[in-house]
Amino acid sequence: MSKTPYRPQGGRHHVVIIGAGFGGLFAAKKFKDSDVSVTIVDRTNHHLFQPLLYQVATGILSEGEIAPSIRQILADQDNVRVVKGEVRDVNLEGQTVTADLGGKDEVLEYDSLIVAAGASQSYFGNEHFAEFAPGMKSIDDALEIRARVTGAFERAEITDDPEERKRLLTFVVVGAGPTGVELAGQLAEMAHRTLRDEFREINTKNTRILLVDGGPHVLMPFGKRLGRKAARILEKLNVDVIPNSLVTNVTKEGVTLKDMKTSEESFVPAYCKIWSAGVAASPLGKHVADQAGVEVDRAGRVSVNDDLTVGEHRNVFMIGDMINLNRLPGVAQVAMQGGQYAARTIIDQVENRTSPSSRPPFDYFDKGSMAIVSRFNAVVKMNKAEVSGFLGWLMWLVLHLLYMVGFRNRAVAAFSWGLNSVSRRRWQLTATRQQLHARNALRKLREMEDNEGIRSIEVRDNLRFGEGRDTRAVSD
Predict the structure, then answer these.
(1) Confidence band of 469 (pLDDT split at 50, 70, 90)
(2) Residues 86, 106, 182, 449: which is the catalytic one?
(3) Quick one: pLDDT band at residue 471, thresholds 50, 70, 90?
């Protein structure tokens, strides 16, 4: 017997938002005091300030400071309901969304749909790299990386083998975009500043950090000038910047690099490998696009109309990292502005009876890009204006504080950044063995279950859309 789809009481226009990232949250908040009912669905219970994940991974901030509860954020909006669950199906014809948590389905009927499911790490067809080189797209990822980083130093402290110690003290960051650059800079500061007097058998200043990218310089979207400035700062921190190089293999022992100019390959022994080289849109986008008869590109991004709707379905909006429109970058500002635009468009339709044909096109305002390289050093690009050094660092601090959610989180972050600028210590380096091993343990458990044709609740609750439904229904 099929379950009756949920629809809020009162008969108001019902908006379902998939995803509580920047796009989904900004859309939900825009509906405050409007004559619509909103249901926001997310697989987690928190809104993640993803640009600061690397600071959780390197012990500057705790996870709670960049991932406040969705329910607490939206508690004052009486017209918003929050549902925690993994979206398993979107039916455009029936106008329903199906999500599940703990083996229990929740079917939601919508009048308007905003798909803001975001993106995941892309290994460019080499998904097996993920076993030894985690990406950084979630709190779980950041905590695993923290455990790997701190664990590398702990293992190096107790080994008697000089070659093994050298491998343990070698860190490879793949991808020299903002995340890779910021992470490499913080790893260098940890090794050469934070941990320098905390071990007795090793000298953490002997740590080697490699930043590898297939492009000719770091921070490609920022241009050559700022990219070269960032590279010089990193090199002063003893980071080895390796441009024009591809990673052709990742194993437990290290990584294989291929020089794009000479085609020569070399192997770098390394215990800790971190992947920040690419993103792929949520497969939910292709699921929706196939029903709407529209194209997706190689990264899974959906071709949308000028009003961010999908094909002939003018009540279905797609925003953020999932869209392919006018070469918009996959940055937080695109998602924020897209979410607000979709919400305004729906409100205008409900309150003023406007037709889809009269909608203005989505007009993205580029507020610039920025990346922090080290203490007191950041690079900022705003159209033709370029800023670097201490002024860029201050601009980075102010902007990120403005977009953090909640007064407490802003205050704690500001205090932590101020303390980190004058003290070499970090107070968020706690790591556990479960954080280190949980992701791969779940992967191995799933492989065993696939062979046996069963599905445990532990595995099911960690399946993402597109990873297959269960062969046997389970519940908590």
Answers:
(1) low
(2) 182
(3) very low
> How far does Cα 135 stand from its chain's mean position?
9
Average pLDDT over residues 191-209: 96
Question: Is 343 buried (19+), middle (13-18) or exposed (0-12) by CB count in 10 A?
Answer: buried
Residue type, 154: E
Distance of CA 399 to the CA centre of its chain: 18
Whether residue 199 is predicted with pLDDT greater than 90 in this model: the reply is: yes
Whether the predicted model's global pTM rises above the 0.90 cut: yes
182: annotated active-site residue: yes
Q: Mapped to the 3 state alphabet, what secondary structure does the chain carry? A: CCCCCECCCCCCEEEEEECCCHHHHHHHHHCCCCCEEEEEEECCCECCCHHHHHHHHCCCCCHHHHCCEHHHHCCCCCCEEEEECEEEEEECCCCEEEEEECCEEEEEECCEEEECCCEEECCCCCHHHHHCCCCCCCHHHHHHHHHHHHHHHHHHHHCCCHHHHHHHCEEEEECCCHHHHHHHHHHHHHHHHHCCCCCCCCCHHHCEEEEECCCCCCCHHHCHHHHHHHHHHHHHCCEEEECCEEEEEECCCEEEEEECCCCCEEEEECCEEEECCCEEECHHHHHHHHHHCCCECCCCCEECCCCCEECCEEEEEECHHHEECCCCCCCHHHHHHHHHHHHHHHHHHHHHCCCHHHCCCCCCCCCCEEEEEECCEEEEEECCEEEEHHHHHHHHHHHHHHHCCCHHHHHHHHHHHHHHHHCCCCCCCCCCHHHHHHHHHHHHHHHHHHHHCCCCHHHHCCCCCCCCCCCCCCCC
